[in-house]
Amino acid sequence: MATSTSTVLRFQRKVALLIGNQNYCRSEDQLRHTINDVDDISIALRNMKFHVKTEHDLYNSEMICAFSDFSNIIIDGDLILFYFSGHGCEINGRNYLLPIDDELIENDKVKRERNDSHPMELPAGTYVVFACSPYQIASDGLLTERNGLFAKHLLKHMTKPNKDIKQLFRTVTNGVCIESKQKQKPTRIDGLIGLEQIYLNDKSIHINNGNKKTKYKGSSVLQ
């Protein structure tokens, strides 16, 4: 709920792009739960009034088109959320998301560095979360489970009404760390400014003030 020391952010729309790359061209690089992850998160986001575009198993050219098409629908005043589940890497301080046909994944050095996500400069109003810390491997989940470890804990908490985005991902991080016994520690990079109250699932709250009702509406920012 908004307080006298916080700013409530409002947005015209909530839009999201989710990409799950699972069936990589080399069989040894294939993942188990990434498609389930993005499908389940897509459902949760739609239930929170997001306009969602979900993509599976994209080649390089298809990923470029997906980003281009998504950027073309964004307008001022939008809340933007992007979620990627698949292989990634860091090379010379830059982070890359790998399409299913990317030859970089065949490079053993890149495989060792694929979760070495260095700190980055963020534009104001952005909040980035990596599923693990540098030099760690993000768990793709157990065969008996539907989701990867990070997505499992995100799905558990993301739909809670009026939960501040920073509090949400602190909760997710704690859950992942505990279940993995500290082997996987999500990394959060905060580019938000001030004391904004930021919610994925924003709900209106009416407070009686004598005969006058004041309406507070929580909103969220995530890019």
From TrEMBL:
Which organism is this protein's natural source?
A: Adineta steineri
Recorded superkingdom: Eukaryota
Q: Which Gene3D superfamilies match?
A: 3.40.50.1460
PROSITE patterns attached here?
Answer: CASPASE_P20
GO process annotations (BP): proteolysis
| InterPro entries linked | Caspase-like_dom_sf (IPR029030), Caspase-related_regulators (IPR052039), Pept_C14_caspase (IPR011600), Pept_C14_p20 (IPR001309)
Q: Which residues form the Caspase family p20 domain?
A: 12-90
What name does the UniProt record give this protein?
Caspase family p20 domain-containing protein
Under the GO molecular function aspect, what terms does this record hold?
Answer: cysteine-type endopeptidase activity
